[in-house]
Amino acid sequence: MSGIQEPPTGPATPPDGWPQPDVGTVPPWDTKLDGNRRRPTTAEQAVPWLIGLVLALAGMLIVALALIFSSTDGLLPAFGTPSPEPTLALTPTPRPTPSPEPSPDISLEPTPEPVASSAFAPLEIIFMQRTSTSGPVHLFSHDFAGQETPEPLARDDRGVDQYSWSPDGAWGIALVEGNPLGLNPGNSAADLGDGFDGITFAADSVTAYAVRATLSGSNDRAELLSVNMATGAVQVLAIWTYPHPTTFQQGAVQEAQFADDGGFNRVYVLQDGRVVVWILGAPEIYTYDPATGVTGTTNRAPLLWSPDGQLRIEVTEAGGSSTLTVRGLANEARGAAGVSGLVSHVRWSSLNNQIVFTISTSAGGGVSQELYLWDLETGSLAVRLTQDMRSMGGEFRGVEEYWKP
After folding, report:
1. What CATH code is carried by the domain that includes residue 143?
2. Is residue 58 part of a domain?
3. How sure is the predictor about 132, in pLDDT bands with cuts at 50, 70 and 90?
4. How far apart are CA 385 and CA 373, in angstroms?
């Protein structure tokens, strides 16, 4: 039989084969005194002493740690003394060189999380620029954070008077002495008609709208036109007749600002799809609904809002300087920037966090115009994008303009 054998009962001396006691140190096994069990070995008798020793050492260690951690000179600071906060070091994003003129005092509240909607570079801007002080105006595209030189989009010795670019960034129209030229980068310009005064694109990026005003006797006749950029087809959508407006000449800086904002005859597409025709001096501001063909009027010109419809820019002027104020849906001020000169052609970025605009000032008997960028997230100074004194009409490529009545 294998396994553990129980010690036999009977004689006090274990039989042969069982461990013999050390008679020199311990008494012999006595079943009357010790019972029917074996005596514990020396190792087993030492276990309680070892456990006691371990517990004693552990207690001494706990006491020592308690003394260390409660001391102001120990490993941790005393209770109530704050640990140093980590220093956060951010790598700055390269930005255009600030101009010394603007001096805004800005405090902006957080805006809704922006959603990227453009396939173009964040600082890719389309704008107009004169070749010289009195030279013709050409149309360019420039990534101000990347490209070294602007890319020409439309060059004509007669000069570009106005332009509009589709929300998807693919199509453009340039007005050259009232003649609309269809622009598709990489292809030749297409003649789309004549006599256009104002142009804009619909949200579908294929349909463009134009206004054409002509003198008709003692009255003016304004036509609203649609242009299909894919086919080149032009259609008259609505006609309004009104008394010929009386206009007057302003100073050179004010005239430059007025032209940069769209001139005498302007057309807008509202966020609800309606088209608005604004004509300086006309008795009404006219509307047209492409979905129903119904014409109407409105009591004020449209206001441009950020692409998410949450913010707008209010521009006020005093003494040749301008203040740009960011306002929310409740007309509350969210921040402001003061600049020297007259502001025109304010346009939003696709992320609702930047605007580009023109500043016109008097310079050497003429007018200086430069493009500026204001970052609303950082609240930093408005910075000058151009240094040539002849740039205007900037807008971010691939952004749909969001106009409200």
Report:
1. 2.120.10.30
2. no
3. confident
4. 7
- Give the Cα separation of 196 and 164 in Å (integer): 12
At 8-60, the pLDDT tens digits run 444 444 444 444 444 344 445 444 444 444 455 555 555 455 555 555 555 55
Phi/psi for 391 (5° steps) reads -115, 145
Q: Is residue 167 part of a domain?
A: yes
Specify if 135 maps to a domain.
yes
Residue 173 placed within a domain: yes
Structural domain range at position 311:
124-404
Q: Which pLDDT band holds residue 224 (cuts at 50, 70, 90)? A: very high
* pLDDT at 239 exceeding the cut of 90: yes
pLDDT for residue 277 is more than 50: yes
Q: Is the dihedral of CA 117, 119, 124, 127 positive or negative?
A: negative
100 φ/ψ sector (left φ>0, alpha ψ -120 to 50, else beta):
alpha
pTM > 0.90: no
